[in-house]
Design brief:
436 residues, binds pyridoxal-5'-phosphate, single chain, 42% helix, seven-stranded mixed beta sheet, 15 strands, alpha/beta
């Protein structure tokens, strides 16, 4: 096998080669042996319009024929790239009117981390560079972005240079609340811990805080009640920038265009990717607020240029696909569609809440996590579901569900019934009746 696979044990992969997919239709993918699977996690939370959207394919083809590549460096750009920037400025929160294009979520986070440094240098605060990130956050796997990620398995063995990172607790009420502590009190405690960290290190050393408005790959944690409001008050008091990492949540996933709209965040920088192009082309965009743009523009002017850019950033084919993706979202009335689908999914999940093997169910829009009792292994449930033709994602002992926005009611019901049957099958194989 020639491929070094991401997030995979290479020796295990030699014995159990990864399952290669060869085609897709709607929410379904087909592997080399012809087996079909309903992908209930949209690949990596990203194929929002499913695996066979003709409009996106035609948009890519048109752009390939007109202009298959152009860059945006040094006084040139591509028309499709300009049009996407304008289209994004009109859907992003009102105070964000500037975007910087990249090719992946990780590079978007790297760009945001660099802009934090550039911003504070411009403001004459060269010491204000540390970034606060949370346990179990996922912000990517390059250098600075992996440094911000709060998972040990992304750090082990790599000696990441990364930016100076300070770590605070994750917003998981289920795991981290103290006995008897209400959700709001837990959120206030987290905000208090953030302030203690800032006071201990010194606000003059801390440039930004980064967070996923709803934690995704860390286990699906919607924010506890009052969390973002309290966090933002602390950040404002200490003049610390907020980076909202909306790489999973952006473009409808939580039921609003952006989770920042849903949970009342006013970020200084916002990272987006994934559903921006429904994953049909690798593209990312960092939204830059007016406040940040007003500082970095004159600073770059004084230096003679903004010395940052990627050859394929803002690739016109990716931009054409993203423009068509946005057009589809507008036509489908994104919040209404996700709201309706989410109601069906979460209604079905709520019916499972009393299942003895389930200890918690968390969701926001079309992002859901079902956490199992420790003795019922999520990996075994996922394997059982896969045998029945449904792909789930395992995060610790949680099963994540995050289907394409084109999933039908019948397909949602299929995911729910396979989930229940798979849990039951795993429980039945073990003497769990007394144990659970
Ligand atoms: N940030 C978040 C919140 C993510 O979920 C991810 C990927 O899952 C990334 C950043 C990194 O994106 P990519 O894998 O495109 O580099």
């Amino acid at each position: 096998m020639a491929q070094l696979y991401p997030f995979t044990d290479p020796l295990l992969a030699e014995k159990q080669p990864p399952n290669a997919m060869v085609s897709g239709e709607g929410c379904w993918v087909v592997d080399r042996s012809g087996r079909r699977y309903l992908d209930a996690v949209s690949g990596l939370w990203c194929v929002s319009l499913g695996f066979s959207n003709e409009r996106l394919i035609r948009a890519a083809e048109r752009q390939y024929r007109n202009l298959p590549y152009y860059h945006s460096f040094m006084g040139r750009t591509a028309e499709a790239t300009e049009r996407l920037a304008d289209a994004l400025a009109s859907v992003l929160p009102a105070h964000i009117n500037r975007v910087f294009f990249g090719c992946s979520g990780s590079d978007a986070v790297e760009t945001a981390a660099k802009l934090v440094r550039f911003y504070w240098n411009a403001r004459g605060a060269p010491e204000k560079k540390k970034i606060i990130a949370r346990d179990k956050a996922y912000h990517g796997s390059l250098s600075a972005s992996a440094g911000l990620t709060g998972m040990d398995y992304c750090h082990d063995g790599f000696d990441l240079p990364g930016p100076d990172v300070l770590r605070v607790g994750r917003p998981s009420y289920f795991h981290d609340a103290e006995p008897g502590e209400g959700e709001h009190d837990f959120a206030m405690r987290r905000a208090g811990e953030l302030e203690e960290t800032i006071l201990a290190v010194g606000a003059d050393k801390i440039g930004a805080f980064i967070g996923e408005p709803v934690v995704g790959s860390g286990g699906v944690f919607p924010p506890p009640e009052g969390y973002w409001q309290a966090i933002q008050e602390v950040l404002k008091r200490h003049d610390i920038l907020l980076i909202a990492d909306e790489i999973i949540t952006g473009f409808g996933r939580t039921g609003a265009w952006f989770a920042s709209d849903k949970y009342g965040l006013t970020p200084d920088l916002m990272t987006t990717a994934k559903q921006l192009s429904s994953a049909y082309f690798p593209i990312s965009a960092v939204g830059i607020s007016e406040r940040v743009a007003a500082v970095i523009d004159p600073h770059a002017h004084d230096l003679g240029t903004l010395g940052h850019g990627l050859t394929y950033g803002g690739h016109p084919v990716g931009c054409a696909v993203a423009l068509e993706t946005l057009a589809v979202y507008q036509e489908m009335d994104l919040p209404a569609t996700i709201g309706r689908l989410a109601q069906r999914l979460t209604g079905g999940l709520e019916a499972l809440r009393d299942h003895p093997a389930i200890v918690d169910i968390r969701y926001s829009g079309l992002m859901a996590g079902v956490e199992l009792e420790a003795r019922v292994k999520a990996s075994e449930v996922s394997a059982a579901a896969e045998r029945q033709g449904v792909l789930l994602r395992v995060i610790d002992n949680t099963l994540a569900i995050s289907p394409p926005y084109v999933i039908s009611d019948q397909e949602i019901d299929l995911v729910l019934s396979v989930l229940r049957e798979s849990i039951d099958a795993v429980v039945a194989r073990q003497p769990l009746r007394e144990a659970v």
